[in-house]
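hey can u run this one w/ fe (ii) ion bound, need the structure tokens asap thx
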Amino acid sequence: MTLTPEQIRTFDTEGMLCIPGFLNETDINALLKRLKELLRDFDYDNHPKLQFGVDDDNHIGDQYFFDSGDKISYFLDTDAIDSDGNLRYPKERAVNKIGHGLHIKDPLFARITFDDKVQGVARDLGYEDPRVLQSMCIFKQPKGENDIERQNAVPSHNDATFLYTEPASALGFWFAIEDCTLQNGCLSYNPGSHKTFPITKRFVKNKGGHGCSFIPVEHEGEVPKDSPEDYKLLECKAGSLVLIHNSVMHKLENNVSDKSRFVYAFHVIEGGAKYDELNWLQVPASGGHNFSKLYESGKTE
Ligand code: FE2
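ok here u go:
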């Protein structure tokens, strides 16, 4: 067992579980170094200047995005470019996300992803044939001395909306590479909401191949009120692993500090669950779900 019975109970009750010290010091430092290298090597001049937004009326859907499932692709913060089309921050502080194939393309991220302990977590939570997808570095960029307030909050959502399977099966692995605090944009979540909030919509690739939108999902029962006062703050130290249930409501605030908050995250879905062509993430990008097997260390079919 990798998880204790109490941790399994907490995850089941709350829909989120923080495991402090999951990564050792050596791996934290190696990941941080690699993230900084990726930012340093970002070829901004040849980039399509794609900004990462998933709000109802501001969502991503360019071919560069659709092609990213098995690549190392860069997505900018929604506030990174000013109204004249110029970069508002140095490129290292303009990136929101790098993904979504780090577990395929980069040996360090592959090692962290397919680690025995990660496999143990999935086994302890009952996954029979988990498949890995959507690996990414998520950056909460710090506010520089002369910057305006950074706009990098993520509104309340559940992950099943963006990673839809039938039955719902996604599980988020979210590794804090730096300390996550209230000031630099840590997670907060609505405990137990994975049991009471139905999945009401899903994020799909538009027919014709350009853009994404949300379509309703049939569900039973009323949607409870999603009150900010129900949310629990999840501050955690570098090296923590946070497990995120596909249906738990969670959000992230703006980073109002001068400290960065870097995270590595990926998802698994159950191999036997239905994953259809409406999902934006297809591997290969032309259509398919050739996702890496977690228990066979990255093997695909
Ligand atoms: Fe999320």
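The pocket of fe (ii) ion is lined by residues 157, 159, 250 (CB under 6 Å). anyway lmk if its weird
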